[in-house]
Amino acid sequence: MSVDTVSLTGWGRTAPTTAVRFRPRGYGEAAAVVRGRGPRGVIARGLGRSPGDAAQNAGGSVLDLSGLARVDGVDAAAGVVRCDAGVSLERLLRVLLPLGWLPPVLPGTGRVTVGGAIASDLPGPDHRRAGSFARQVSALELLTADGEVRTVLPGTALFDATAGGLGLTGVILGATLRLRRVSTGLMSVSTERAGDLDDLLARFTAGGDRLPYASAWVDLTARGRATGRGILTRGEHATPYMRPAHAGRTRLSQRSGAAPGRSLLPGLPPLPGGLLGPAAAALCNEVRYRGSPRARTGELRPVSAFFHSSDALPDVRPLYGRGGLVRYRFTVGYGQEETLHRVVRRIAARRSPAVRAVLQRFGAADPGLLSFAAPGWSLELDLPAALPGLGRFLDGVDEEVAAAGGRVCLAQDSRMRPETAAAMYPRLAEFRELRAGLDPAGAFRSDLSRRLGL
Questions:
Q1: Which of 167, 174, 222, 386 has a 20 to 30 A CA-CA distance from 442?
Q2: CA atoms of 109 and 310, how far apart (whole Å)
Q3: Which helix (H) or strand (E) holds 366?
Q4: Is there a contact between 84 and 116 (Cβ–Cβ < 8 Å)?
Q5: In the chain, count of helices (H) and strands (E)?
Q6: pLDDT at residue 244, rounded to an integer
Q7: Which of 106, 125, 102 is nearest to 235 (CA)?
Q8: In whole angstroms, what is the distance from residue 48 CA to residue 111 CA?
Q9: Positive or negative CA dihedral for 252, 253, 258, 261?
């Protein structure tokens, strides 16, 4: 096992803190770290894709599980796979797709570990059908504060606290996942432009869930009549003899490869490094919106290009400046669309340089005590952390979201106040009580848990 002292941040590169990092080679070494932890405790870390401080532990220990990455095999009869927590979804997809299977839920990046997906209870673009990631877990191995490894099953209080529990109930070492059978490695994709936010929401709901996967890019720099305009993308798994758009009937390979890398900003030369300003963001968004088709159906894309298109792009973080980026994700329920409208108008009126903004629909709430997804609309956006007044602005948005019964995603948070989190998550007291009984000495801690009093 390697050990070093390092300065760590989340993917957003905000608020670096120093910790002792352990890289175990097996479950026994991981258990030894937990048993020998210091007074500042320990937290598990995967590939560091959490935008905030959920996998940091200032002055304490960080257990890097990226080396625990075995895929133990697929049980085709049962439709399950057992793997270590350090396996990335990107690798799992490469292993499973040639066998005719997919991981149960695929969020917007494949560069996150199975353990991280469970601890964050990540939703995908088919949440209305499949729920978040942990809902498709049939068992997990959890290293608890006493140094013992427990098998934890769905429907138990410990499972519900661990799913979305941000690593604060223990270290997820491995999991058994239910899989989805597919007949090809391609997706049939439909794309359409919406002129404003009302148009975009209407297009989302039109046709129900005939195409199970749906998400939209929203132009948060557009104002006036175009406020909230966007591009809706929907998809379904292609069948072996599905007709490609603008082509003859072609048999599809189950082993279709990943899409080639795309330009960061189609139609524009690369932007220089540094803070992305309002004018540059508005120009990028204009090019993206005008360059998309008004309506297109039947486009065939590789699975990886559909779900993880951003993974093929260059690292965009330098565009946000040395202060890094703040990822803000919230959800409000159906019937609270006016709150969504107000937030979008506030961001547009502030001329915030938001290039990345993703809108999704959620279905039934997930069972995790701190799971983010609940029935309604979710908007996720990235903003430069160095924007003047950003903290005060987002505090105001927090209040508006909370007043509407919504919530901000804890797994991606880097700046929320503890009283706001308590107002948004009604089962937080239940989580704290279970955690206190399971881990009275506070073995598992993170910068986020201290900041929010979790």
A1: 174
A2: 7
A3: none
A4: no
A5: 13, 19
A6: 63
A7: 125
A8: 9
A9: negative
Q: How far apart are CA 85 and CA 55, in angstroms?
A: 14
Structure tokens at 434: 């279970």
Is the distance from CB of 113 to CB of 85 less than 8 angstroms? yes
d(CA 445, CA 438): 13
Regions of the chain where pLDDT drops below 50: 247-273
Cα distances (Å, whole numbers) of residue 292 to 141, 192, 296, 304, 450:
45, 8, 9, 20, 44
pTM for the model stands at 0.92
The tokens for 39 are 């007074």
pLDDT tens for each residue of 126-165: 999 999 999 999 999 999 999 999 999 999 999 999 999 9
3-class DSSP assignment, residue 56: coil
Cite the DSSP H helix spans in 38-126: 89-96, 114-120
Instruction: Determine the Cα–Cα distance for residues 251 and 146; give it in Å rounded to an integer.
Output: 55
User: Exposed e or buried b for every residue in 284-293, given b needs 16+ CB within 10 A?
Assistant: bbeebbeebe
- List the structure tokens of 87: 């396996």
